[in-house]
Amino acid sequence: MRILTVCILFTLLSYPASARCTSESFGQFDFWVGHWQVFSDGKLAGVNHISKDLDNCVIREHYTTQKGYEGRSLNIYDASRNLWHQTWVDNGGMLLLLEGRFEQGSMRLSGEGITDKGEKVLHRITWTPNMEGNTVRQHWQYSKDMGQSWSSLFDGLYKKISDSDN
Prior knowledge:
There is one protein chain. The chain has one domain: Beta Barrel (Lipocalin). Helices cover about 10% and strands about 55% of the residues. The protein contains 2 helices and 10 strands.
């Protein structure tokens, strides 16, 4: 076991960091990178700063509202499984683990959760870019019957403030 660990560590240390996340798949969520105002029902819901991190391997999100709500996510393409993973946490104690793929022009991630009443729920969030309008639609849905029917939890329109990912 120790020899295997040493071999893996040596491989990781000798592999240039800049070459690890360069496949086309790692860029599938880049349309979301930037500084955004997020609108829902025509009203400003919050501000979201999406940036690349860790040698462009990770997409980091930081969402805030004027009412003090704050959430963050880390997103990464898992090349070994050919899918995207998101871990979302917020200042209300929510943890959401989502996985999925970029297909048909949208990023769609889903994952199971538990309601406040202890019921299982399936979350599905879809991000669809509109490059001509410099906007992104984020549609968060949930299903209490594990995907038979869906209800909308949040339907937001991202309007870009800047391309900055700093």
